[in-house]
Structures are given as structure tokens and as C-alpha cells.
Amino acid sequence: MSEEFQGLDEAMRKIQLDEVEKLNDNKGGDSGHTTPSEQQPISITLPPPKRNRQVYGFPVSFEWLWETAASLLAEIEPDEENVYGNPIYGFRTYFGISSIGTASAILLPGQIVPAECMDGKFVTVLYIFNEQPHNYRYRPTQEQVDEITEFVGREPQWWLDCMPGSFYDGLTD
After folding, report:
1. Half-sphere exposure at residue 116, Cβ-oriented, CA atoms within 13 angstroms
2. 104 contacts: CB under 8 Å, gap ≥ 6
3. Is 121 helix (H, G, I), strand (E, B) or coil?
4. Which residues are CB-neighbours of 171 under 8 A, at least 6 positions away?
5. Residues 35, 37: Cα–Cα separation, whole Å
């Protein structure tokens, strides 16, 4: 990695860590977190900084993602005609977790996933939150993580998005 990218990585991580520290400093009163249950968000250690965005979630097959989202939407909004609209909307609405999203992740050495979760050379990931400050601050409660973990049937883990964090600048999750 070039020195320029290393410097950018270090600067971005400092900004992210400063943001997390500000959130942690405010826990007494207005925590800055908004979760549906008004409970404390999951306490988790961020992974070491990387150039690419890092997401915390589950490997899933693309087919499972769409079929499950359609099923959830049909349960939530049975009168809607287009239950195949946006799969993330179904998961966000059903579980009440606004930070949920999807990513194509790089399969790192030591990570093992079912073949159906692979999309070419990338892993399809349904993530609960990512380490970017605008998403991390809205991470779910431990109870919500436990609920979606039981639903998916796999333990969440950190994944390295195939796109650099700068790709998402200006975009919201």
C-alpha cells in the first residue's frame, strides 16, 4: 500500500475513532444513539483499520436474501402488491434495525462460507451495521443482534467490503 493511502487510512480511522469516542463520552445523557428500543447499542470492538469499508454481518445467498425479504414484506405489509421491491426495506422493517444493508465482501484467508453465498469471487453479506461513523452510531442492541442471528442461523462476523470506504462517501446506508 502506498504511503499516501496509508496516510489516508490512518486519518480516516482517527476520524472514525474520534466519532466513536464522542458517542461513548455522551452515554450519561443524550447518547447520540437512536435505537427503536432506546437501549444501549451492542458493545463491540472495531476491527483494525482497512482501506475498504468493514461490515458486521452474515454470509447469505443472493436467492435467500430476496426470497426471505419478500416473505418478511408479505408478513409485514400483506396488502402490498410489490413485495419484491427492496430487500433491505424488509429486513430493516421486520427487525427494526436501520443500519442493515448488503455488501459484496472479499473472502479473506481463513474465512469459510457455504458455496451458495459466493457471487463469483465475492461473498454476499447481509450486514447488521458497518464501521463507518454514520452507520456505526445506529448499530442495534444486543437483543436485536441475537434475534437476527437466530433468524439467519449463523453467527455474525466482520467482513471486508470489496469497495473502498471512499466509494460510499456522500451515500447513506
Report:
1. 7
2. 119, 122, 123, 124, 125, 161, 162, 163
3. coil
4. none
5. 5
Using DSSP, state whether 54 is helix, strand or coil. Answer: strand
Per residue in 70-102, pLDDT (tens digit) is: 888 888 877 766 555 678 888 998 999 999 999
Q: Residue type at 147? A: E
Which cell goes with 118? 459466493
- Its sign, for the CA torsion 57, 59, 61, 62, is positive
Question: Which pTM was predicted?
Answer: 0.72
Are 118 and 107 in contact, with CB atoms under 8 Å apart?
A: yes
Contact yes or no for 145/128 (Cβ under 8 A) = yes
